[in-house]
Amino acid sequence: MPSVDLSRGKGVPARLAKEGLSFIPAVHPKLGQCRENFKGVTRQFGDIEFFGAIDDLWVDMFGVHYVVDYKATSKADEVSLDADWQISYKRQVEFYQWLLRGNDLQVSDQAWFVYTNGIKDDSPSNDVLRFKTKLLSYDGNGSWIEPTLKSLIGCLNSDTPPHSSDNCAYCQFISKRDSTKGSITLTPKPTKVDHRIPKAAANNALPIHNDFWFFNIKIPLTVPVIVPSSGQFCQMRVIG
């Protein structure tokens, strides 16, 4: 919503006022970095630095901040957050809330999705695609985050890879390709991966993405890394 950036730090944008909301687009010296991919908001947990790039941040009259995420689609039905696969959207904003709280910001459990839907109809387009935008609120619960991060770090420190899981799409894909009817053969034998990679090497790392574009792990090309198969991945950088 262009009007949001034009109103940043100045007042309630007209679109939010129309929805009966009194949020102001937040002003913060690091907001630009927080919104930049592969930089974003950072937070240390154990000896790992985690990060995520937010879309926007609103603030109310009491100084409480609200994570805002922008989504776009084009379908006949009204947009919502009710589909099972949209748990990834919810985990995304919960993780952002956790990151921001680690940077001394007062953050509400309530997050907002600005969800735009491309209108499909028979009217002439004249090279213009029309959208209908809906604002959806979601009350996050980040209780899963730190236990998941502990599990992830434990996996990175382990001498052996995790067992395959029936709930992991990657494991099932490999199983279907394997001629031994479901088992996953690892050759050569897995070796211990030391996650304390020098910063110089980490700076030349290659981003590897899973099914959810907003999650990535930065690792050097020469280092094999095995990640847990819980499906609850998070963004991380390995630091020395």
| Share in helix | 10-25%
Total number of distinct structural domains: 2
Arrangement of strands in the largest sheet: 1-4-5-6-7
The shape, in one word, is: globular
**Total count of strands:** 10
User: What is the subunit organization of this protein?
Assistant: single chain
Question: How are helices and strands ordered from N to C?
Answer: HHEHEEEEHEEHHHEEE
List the defining traits of the structure above.
5-stranded mixed β-sheet, 7 helices, alpha+beta, 22% strand, disordered C terminus, globular, 2 domains
Explain what this protein looks like in three dimensions.
- 23% of the residues lie in helices and 22% in strands.
- With 240 residues, the protein is an alpha+beta fold.
- A hairpin with a 2-residue loop joins strand 2 (41-45) and strand 3 (48-52).
- The protein has two domains: 2-140, no CATH class; 148-238, no CATH class.
- Strands 1-4-5-6-7 form a five-stranded mixed β-sheet, with helices on one face. Strands 2-3-10-9-8 form a five-stranded mixed β-sheet.
